[in-house]
Design a protein that fits this description.
The chain contains four helices and 13 strands. The protein is of the alpha+beta class. A 13-stranded antiparallel sheet has the order 6-5-4-3-2-1-13-12-11-10-9-8-7, with helices on one face.
Length: 273
């Protein structure tokens, strides 16, 4: 069995630079404070200084709650240098998802607003729908927001109250950007780490509503005091669709350009339909 090629589409207590509530008020101030505490728990300045990351482990895909795919997976992520105030909706990241014991068995590559499925046959551009979903997923990802998006103009942090989720007492914060994207983040009241995120998307053709939930657990040090979840689960409309158990997560490995570019001379195939 093989995992779907998109992995189930896919810090100090000092105020983090660029965290601003666009509309000052009690809920915005409290939301801003909760985000600052979460960033500090993840490593603060060290988290925001991460240049790249390598996650290796076992990835599982599910269909109607039944296991439908299993593979060894390695995810390479490299953050790009963003402007002081990046435009809402811009992506500043490159990613390579490799599968199997040998990386030539298959990979998906995202860079420069492009996506390719790489096999022994060549490099085939992924369907536009897949590329759009990857982009949407990344823009809503709490770790990407903390690393790359905090300096965006118009970013709002709105405290939505306290609750209990999976037997944990949590604070809930809505993060809204200038394009009205909203992600709801659930923050453990004790550890200050994010344990869950939720956002809603609609199918561009059918307008069907999808509730995308990601659950984070088993945090460990990924190097230099940076915390990262070694167990990540994704659910869509309350059905589990993906899970990765990382055996190793390392940051700042000095990943090079060759990981995020197409191999020289590779055959570029027609876009998949």
């Amino acid at each position: 069995m093989r995992v779907p090629l998109l992995l189930a589409l896919s810090l100090t207590l000092l105020p983090a630079p660029g965290i601003q509530a666009a509309v000052p008020g009690p809920t915005q101030e409290r939301g801003k404070r909760a985000i600052e505490e979460m960033l500090a728990a993840l490593g603060g300045d060290r988290f925001q200084a991460v240049r790249d990351r390598v996650e290796s482990g076992r990835a599982y895909s599910f269909y109607r709650e039944q296991l439908s795919g299993l593979s060894l997976a390695t995810i390479y992520t490299r953050y790009l240098d963003a402007t002081d105030q990046p435009a809402p909706g811009s992506l500043w990241v490159e990613e390579r998802q490799s599968f199997g014991k040998k990386e030539r068995d298959g990979a998906v590559l995202f860079f420069d607003s492009k996506g390719y499925q790489i096999t022994f046959r060549g490099a085939r551009p992924v369907p536009q729908e897949t590329l759009d979903r990857y982009r949407d997923s990344m823009l809503h990802n709490i770790f990407y927001i903390l690393r790359q998006r905090l300096r965006e103009p118009g970013l709002l942090f709105d405290y939505r109250g306290a609750d209990t989720v999976d037997s944990r007492a949590v604070h809930i914060v809505d993060i809204t950007d200038a394009d009205n994207r909203v992600v709801k983040v659930y923050i453990d009241q004790s550890s200050k780490l994010p344990v869950r995120q939720l956002y809603v998307r609609r199918d561009p053709k059918t307008r069907d509503r999808f509730e995308e939930v990601t659950i984070f657990s088993k945090y460990r040090d990924a190097g230099g005091g940076v915390q990262w979840p070694f167990d990540i689960q994704r659910l869509r409309n309350d059905e589990k669709i993906f899970e990765i158990y990382s055996e190793s997560v390392e940051v700042n490995k000095g990943l090079t350009d060759d990981l995020f570019t197409l191999p020289s001379g590779i055959k570029v195939l027609p876009r998949a339909k």
